Amino acid sequence: MRGVICAGPPTSGKTTVLKHVIRKLLKEGFKLAYLKVDVQYADEDGLFKAEFGIPVKKVYSGELCPDHCNVMVLGDAVEWAEEEQADFLIVETAGLCFRCSPYIEGALGIVVLEATSGMNLPRKIGPMLSLADLAVVTKIDLVSQAEREVFRARILETSPGMNVVETNALYGIGVDRILKSIKASPELKHPMYLKGNPPVGTCTICVGKKEIGWRQHFGVLRPLEGDMFYRGE
């Protein structure tokens, strides 16, 4: 079985892109399973189940960071998809934490970016872009040719050598190139590992300490003026 992890900022067009991808994969006879990870609301699983009749699951991360939640549940999700005899497990993440990266080694990482989100977006989203295997740019019909070229250049500036696909996801234009990358992806192998390094450690804020100011915390700290340092056991 092969894995596809689709990330990107909210409203970038992830679900619309995946609809076209799933429709084409099913037409070619592949069996699919779909997992949606979100924070507090999502209905994509129901839509995909109704339209395509594929096995679906949904996980709400709640108070847990959605990308951390993705890491926690992905092992079980792979086992579930294998039990469903799926050829591909397609995971759609919440896409809220730009410092984290939801991608794993051996799975195809797709980041979906909308061309209307501003020329500097590729410079802002860090590992979500730089650790992806494929960047899909949506809503290209809503910007000028010059803006498209600058946006593409900013992607390649952040991640040299990135495979960039420009698409009008509403009509499925450019989806065949995405499909080609998906079908060429390798089989998942165990044990599975995150691609790249996660953010620095668990901090006291993550575990519920609410006081403001670095002097009130321990672990990896950072003042306004100065570098990060560690304090505590």
TrEMBL record:
Residues 5-165 form the CobW/HypB/UreG nucleotide-binding domain. InterPro entries: CobW/HypB/UreG_nucleotide-bd, Hyd_mat_HypB, P-loop_NTPase. It holds the Pfam family cobW. GO terms for molecular function: GTPase activity; nickel cation binding; zinc ion binding. This is CobW/HypB/UreG nucleotide-binding domain-containing protein. GO terms for biological process: protein maturation. It comes from Methanocella arvoryzae (strain DSM 22066 / NBRC 105507 / MRE50).
